[in-house]
Amino acid sequence: MLYPLYERRLIAQLDYSQTPHHVGVILDGNRRWAKANPDEAGDTSTKRGHQAGAKKIVDLLDWCEEAQVAVVTLWLLSNDNLARPANELNPLLEIIGDALEELGEIGRWELRPVGSMELLPNWLQEKLNAVATKSKGIPGVLVNVAIGYGGRQEIADAVKSLIADAVKHGKQVDELAGLISESEISKFLYTAGLPDPDLVIRTSGEQRLGGFLLWQSAKSEFYFCEAYWPDFRKVDFLRALRSYSQRHRRLGL
Question: Do the bridges between strand 22-26 and strand 199-202 make them parallel or antiparallel, or are there none, so unpaired?
């Protein structure tokens, strides 16, 4: 009985004029959750943890809609994770693919996969492209889904794309150095054209970015939550929003 009361109290304390426009979320703790919460059969497998984490995504997007968040970036899989053993990686890729298809079938959000797509299996690339095409232009929360994503790789890819674009437009080698600037590199990031995240949330108690949106989060606020991702509740999300609204943002100054 106390939980709904506390939730309503948090909502009453929020100033929705201070809602972050763009929220990045590092969905961390699925494996640890599975080990700490075996089912009746004693299953503590990584696969079960990732399945539980995938089910939580819809809840988060519902909460973001209610709070009038415009853009959400979800980090589902790092490029480092692609080096995991096949018996662990393949089930995870299947879970991610199924989760994205289910989000697409709901039809309430535009879904944009971001990351090193070329590193993913062809079947998953095709599935992600199909979901992105089907959901393109849907009004409401825009959802970036970071899969095979690494912040350093994104910056390297942006610089490569900048150079390739300059060469395509007839620029000479000696002109390239003059083209490289913060504003120009930003045009070639995976999230080009979108606002940088105002707030980055990481679950599971880890207090580090781990390479998430390195360029874009230079002036972001951070909120670290102790709950494992499958246990992340609406009150945890509301606490993050309350913490953000109470801060005096200096924007890097």
Answer: parallel
